[in-house]
Write a structure and sequence with these properties.
about 40% helix; alpha/beta; globular; 3-stranded antiparallel beta sheet; about 375 residues
């Protein structure tokens, strides 16, 4: 199989990630933070080291790095945990349902007012449009760093600057960009950053990350055992423990630590390669008659396209069954982006590259698309 579905999850997992997970399962099968014996203490140290590695990656405080069930869980914590009755939130049509659904649910319940910005010519929202949408009761801007549909890139630094100037919180969904681009929470004034480690960090599924600045302390949205304040029937507010209800996925966290180390050691090689391959694939897709390309540039290692008026699911099925090429089709959990692009009925075919893809594989995809278009 030729795998071009890395925006859903990267297929390549470095040997160090696999080994770290196996070692954790074989030698550290203990519950961190729940007992005082040596195995539990060692497990707790592993979790602490993981917080430090995440914090170093995004320039955050390790004590404010929360491990979640996945990136969607992290985004729900951020949105629901900071909700203000009668407040106003600004988001965009580019966002994933992990941002849109909790926001629209809050609006349906009458908790918040919501503004959803349209993308501009760059394929993403402009910082100027976001600033113009600010009202007296606005408390947060929730706009991700990269569209999972087209790979368009948001002006993260400018959005953070606007939030800080106006006393607003900035929530950034970095599910698609984490590992592929540098993220600096302090320099970009990001208050809440959500990561999907199983994508660009080449970590396993089963763990997400929510990193918080010192300016925000959300309310917990999940309740249960934390290993702290066990005498109380009320959820502790301590960060991070009060937000890590239940047993942590220790093998996945161990894999995340190894994944960060691998990315930091190899980013200088695979990032230019991905950029070059993406440029190559996009430029040639645009030359195929009958193909419409929706990706504005190669920043996100994503090539979003359609062939004539064919359903995207039909194209993906042909690519899979006749060429053994894996891509993603449909609406990609981003309905507002498809509404903007006019592709709600057709969906979009998304080919997303990974560090192990090659020029020859891109050529084979291009040949397949050309044959389908013909």
């Amino acid at each position: 199989m030729i795998y071009f579905d890395n925006s859903a999850t990267t297929r390549f997992k470095p040997e160090c990630v696999i080994n770290a997970m196996v070692n954790a399962m074989k030698f550290l099968s203990a519950n961190p933070g729940r007992s005082g014996h040596s195995a539990s203490v060692k497990a707790s140290l592993l979790v602490h080291r993981a917080r430090c590695r995440v914090a170093g990656l995004v320039n955050a405080d390790p004590s404010r790095v929360i491990f979640t069930l996945n990136c969607s869980d992290a985004l729900n914590m951020a949105v629901l945990g900071t909700a203000k009755k009668g407040g106003h939130v600004i988001t965009s049509m580019c966002e994933h349902n992990s941002v849109l659904r909790p926001l629209f649910e809050l609006r349906r319940e009458g908790v918040i007012e919501l503004t959803v910005l349209k993308p501009c010519s760059s394929g993403h929202v402009s910082a100027e449009d976001a600033e113009r949408a600010i009202r007296k009761n606005t408390y947060m801007i929730a706009i991700g760093s990269m569209s999972n549909v087209t790979g368009s890139v948001a002006p993260v630094h400018d959005l953070g600057r606007i939030c800080r100037k106006n006393g607003l919180l900035y929530l950034c969904d970095a599910a698609q960009s984490g590992g592929y681009t540098d993220i600096n929470m302090r320099e970009s004034n990001i208050d809440m950053l959500a990561l999907a480690p199983h994508k660009g960090l080449h970590a396993p599924m089963g763990v997400g990350v929510l990193a918080l600045s010192e300016r925000v302390s959300p309310n917990p949205i999940r309740f249960g055992g934390t290993g702290t304040m066990s005498e109380s029937v009320y959820q502790p507010m301590d960060i991070p423990e009060g937000f890590e209800t239940g047993t942590l996925p220790l093998p996945a966290i161990a894999g995340l630590t190894a994944g960060i180390s691998w990315v930091e050691a190899n980013a200088h090689d695979f990032r230019p390669k991905l950029s070059s391959l993406s440029d190559y694939l996009l430029s040639r897709l645009k030359k195929i008659s009958g193909v419409t390309v929706y990706t504005p540039s190669a920043h996100g290692a994503i090539a979003a396209f359609n062939i004539r008026d064919y359903k995207s699911e039909h194209v993906a099925d042909i690519l899979s069954s006749e060429y053994d090429i894996a891509v993603r089709s449909g609406l990609h959990c981003a309905p507002k982006m498809h509404e903007f692009l006019g592709t709600t009925a057709q969906g979009i075919v998304r080919a997303s590259l990974g560090c192990d893809n090659t020029k020859e594989q891109c050529d084979f995809l291009l040949q397949a698309v050309s044959e389908i278009a013909d």
